[in-house]
Design a protein that fits this description.
Helices cover 46% and strands 20% of the residues. The protein is of the alpha/beta class and 256 residues long. Strands 2-1-3-4-5 form a five-stranded parallel beta sheet, with helices on both faces. The protein has a five-stranded parallel beta sheet with strand order 7-6-8-9-10, sandwiched between helices. The longest helix has 19 residues, at 111-129. The two termini are 22 Å apart.
């Protein structure tokens, strides 16, 4: 269950910021207000994954706070909205990676639109935090056991040993992502991939190819299929989990 906590960073306390905080509280959100000092934000940043920044003050200070918030978005998967006067909001837009912020609201703006967006943010975060199902398709039983063992604590990991088994699995289960070995007997990964993409019930499922060969020719053959990515079988546990985490963050939290 996703909490409904919001960290509200105030560059300036006043009627507008108080009105925003009060309206959020009326909608049953728990709002923690902090100053725009980096030390204060750092002390409270773990209390919420959703942040509203009321940008105000000297240009260099707004830029410093914005840089810090982009780090929270990129490294801690925070969701950030920026509100403020047009000239202050414009400053935040100029910095690298500020496009990763969820939305910008220039005064005067419709508070109800902000509230609708906040509701959507929490719905999205609920989807992001749901434990994802990962289907691993590989004919090597030892590799399959290792990979599903690595993944089982962070995801619902399922494993099958052939393309035929994978397609039968997909008749009844829709995983959130498929890790697909492209070198398998009988039905190889390319054939399985084609079947997945042709099926209107499965074509949206993301597919990342697994390969033990990093040479140019097989990699280019993989990329021609336009999968959602590829991973070397030599990828270590932490890197594999981080890759999947980043994929889901970009494709769920990063969409609007």
């Amino acid at each position: 269950m996703v909490n409904k906590n919001i960290l509200f960073i105030e560059g300036r306390q006043g009627f507008i910021s108080q009105a925003i905080a009060n309206r959020l509280q009326q909608k049953k959100y728990s709002v923690k207000c902090v100053s725009d000092e980096i030390s204060d934000i750092t002390a409270k940043r773990n209390e919420s994954d959703v942040i509203i920044y009321y940008a105000c003050g000297a240009d260099d200070h707004i830029m410093m706070v914005t840089r810090y918030l982009t780090e929270l978005v990129l490294n801690l998967r925070k969701t950030v909205c920026v509100v403020g006067d047009p000239e202050d909001v414009a400053i935040t837009r100029t910095l690298p990676f500020s496009d990763k912020f969820y939305a910008f609201y220039e005064r005067p703006f419709d508070l109800e639109i902000l509230l609708e967006d906040i509701s959507e943010i929490f719905d999205t975060r609920m989807e992001y935090e749901r434990k994802k199902t990962v289907l691993v398709v590989d004919d090597d039983p030892d590799y399959l056991k290792i990979i599903t063992g690595w993944l089982k604590y962070n995801f619902k990991a399922e494993g099958v040993r052939s393309g035929e088994e994978a397609l039968k699995y997909l008749e009844v289960v829709r995983p959130d992502i498929i890790l697909l070995d492209y070198e398998m007997p009988d039905m190889d990964g390319y054939q399985v991939f084609d079947q997945i993409r042709k099926n209107p019930l499965t074509y949206r499922i993301p597919v990342i190819f697994l390969t033990g060969n990093n040479e140019r020719e097989p990699v280019m053959r993989i990329l021609k299929k336009k999968p959602d990515g590829y991973l070397l079988k030599t990828t270590h546990k932490d890197e594999l989990i981080d890759t999947l985490d980043r994929f889901f963050a970009e494709n769920i939290l990063g969409k609007r």
